[in-house]
């Protein structure tokens, strides 16, 4: 995946942004930097603060404290219409009585753009999203995917430096979500604008973003490239939230990490402050004759076929329930109730200090 130019500087910087709604602390002195020309994802569950942060960046909400710097200038007091930022809402918010062309032209008309300049920009925006020929249609004549493209064209026609996307693929079916996701990436590269996407879907965030911020309780739990966060989560929360890793409690010992609930010792370089380890389901393999550290015995409690693999739920000797992804190419999965021996590599054990 081609990311932003490493030489690009910060476009937007949030400094100690705090927001309360009554007694609820939605954002807790949050710091964040968006780089010029990157595709950035804000990932988190309900109540994590991701949508609140997006609305503050757009100018629809005002923080109780902190600064929001665009090119070094604080824009907290700048109204939404005066910011070089556009937002595509989850509902698309199209005007039902307007044609596709008029919906796309709405922002240009409000900005007083001359008709001679607006017409080619509207045509170019519709071409960019593959809707040339749809100019006269009304929203009720469009599919869900086409409505989304109109909303995207309406945002892009304003040539924003920063485009905010609120759950942009949430209303689409699975097949259309994947295709539209690739199209979003292509459009982001073509326009050169920075895209900031809010999503609760971890697969979307991992597939589309150059960088991902995982939010928890109004703070950033971890920030970095998708692969780095997925493979080396920083905490129990990130490990469980992103990719549903197995998290096993225990304590660091001279040999590595001892987990009573797993009934196993995890060998490897384990820091002394480690309180748990994470182990991805796809990193665990069935190994009938394996013994020693980085192995465990258990019983298959359940299995679910997922196409390329079968997800096994294995109850370990110490009582922990381990998720194991058994690839189809590795043969038939074991039956429910069958005993298995599991093994993994020391490099796949991720120490967690919190």
Which properties best describe this structure?
Rossmann fold; OB fold (Dihydrolipoamide Acetyltransferase, E2P); 5-stranded antiparallel β-sheet; 21 strands; 34% strand; elongated; Polyamine-transporting ATPase; ABC_SmlMolc_Importer; nucleotide-binding; transmembrane transporter activity
Q: How would you describe the overall organization of this protein?
A:
By secondary structure, the chain is of the alpha+beta class. It has two domains: 222 residues, Rossmann fold; 108 residues, Nucleic acid-binding proteins (OB fold (Dihydrolipoamide Acetyltransferase, E2P), Beta Barrel), CATH 2.40.50.140. It is built from eight helices and 21 strands. Strands 6-7-8-3-9-10 form a six-stranded mixed beta sheet, sandwiched between helices. A five-stranded antiparallel beta sheet has the order 16-20-17-18-19, with no helix packed on it. It is elongated, with a radius of gyration of 24 Å. The relative contact order is 0.12. Keywords: ATP-binding, Nucleotide-binding, Transport. InterPro entries: AAA+_ATPase (IPR003593), ABC_SmlMolc_Importer (IPR050093), ABC_transporter-like_ATP-bd (IPR003439), ABC_transporter-like_CS (IPR017871), Mo/tungstate-bd_C_term_dom (IPR008995), P-loop_NTPase (IPR027417), Transp-assoc_OB_typ2 (IPR013611). This is Polyamine-transporting ATPase. One of its GO terms (biological process) is putrescine transport.
CATH architecture of the largest domain: 3-Layer(aba) Sandwich
Query: For the largest beta sheet, what order do the strands appear in spatially?
Result: 6-7-8-3-9-10
Number of strands: 21
The main β sheet shows up as: 6 strands, mixed
How would you classify the helix and strand content by structural class? alpha+beta
Rg from C-alpha positions? 24 Å
Report the helical percentage: 10-25%
The H-level CATH homologous superfamily of the largest domain, spelled out, is P-loop containing nucleotide triphosphate hydrolases
Oligomer: single chain
The DSSP helix count reads 8
What is the count of structural domains?
A: 2
Pick out the low-confidence regions.
Answer: none
CATH class of the largest domain: Alpha Beta
| Shape summary | elongated
Q: Would you list the SSEs in sequence order as H and E?
A: EEEHEEEHHHEHEHEEHHEEEEEEEEEEE
Strand residues, percent: 25-35%
Distance between the termini: 31 Å
Enter the CATH topology name of the largest domain: Rossmann fold
């Amino acid at each position: 995946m081609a990311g932003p130019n490493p030489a690009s500087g910060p476009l937007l910087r949030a400094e100690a942004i705090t927001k309360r709604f009554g007694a609820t602390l939605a954002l807790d002195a949050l710091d964040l930097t968006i780089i010029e020309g990157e595709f950035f994802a804000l990932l988190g569950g309900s109540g994590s603060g991701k949508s609140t942060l997006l609305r503050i960046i757009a100018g629809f909400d005002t923080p109780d404290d902190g600064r929001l710097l665009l090119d070094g200038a604080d824009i907290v007091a700048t109204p939404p219409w005066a910011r070089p930022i556009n937002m595509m809402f989850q509902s698309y918010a199209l005007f039902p009585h307007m044609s596709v062309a008029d919906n796309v032209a709405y922002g240009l008309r409000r900005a007083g753009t001359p008709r001679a300049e607006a017409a080619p920009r509207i045509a170019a925006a519709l071409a960019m999203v593959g809707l040339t020929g749809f100019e006269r249609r009304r929203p009720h004549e469009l599919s869900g995917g086409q409505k989304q493209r109109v909303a995207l064209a309406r945002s892009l026609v304003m040539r924003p430096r920063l485009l905010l996307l609120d759950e942009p693929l949430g209303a689409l079916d699975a097949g259309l979500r994947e295709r539209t996701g690739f199209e979003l990436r292509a459009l982001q590269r073509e326009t050169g604008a920075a895209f900031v996407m809010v999503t609760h879907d971890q697969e979307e965030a991992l597939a589309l973003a150059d960088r991902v911020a995982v939010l928890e309780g109004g703070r950033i739990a971890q920030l970095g490239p998708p692969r780095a966060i997925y493979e080396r989560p920083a905490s129990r929360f990130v490990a469980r939230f992103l990719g549903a890793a197995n998290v096993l409690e225990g304590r660091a010992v001279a040999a590595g990490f001892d987990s009573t609930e797993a009934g196993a010792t995890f060998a490897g370089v384990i820091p002394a402050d480690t309180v748990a380890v994470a182990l991805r389901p796809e990193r665990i393999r069935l190994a009938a004759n394996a013994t020693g550290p980085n192995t465990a015995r258990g019983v298959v409690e359940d299995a679910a076929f997922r196409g390329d693999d079968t997800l096994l739920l294995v109850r370990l000797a110490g009582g922990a329930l381990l998720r194991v992804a058994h690839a189809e190419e590795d043969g038939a999965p074991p039956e429910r109730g069958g005993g298995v021996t599991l093994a993994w590599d020391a490099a796949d054990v991720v120490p967690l200090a919190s």
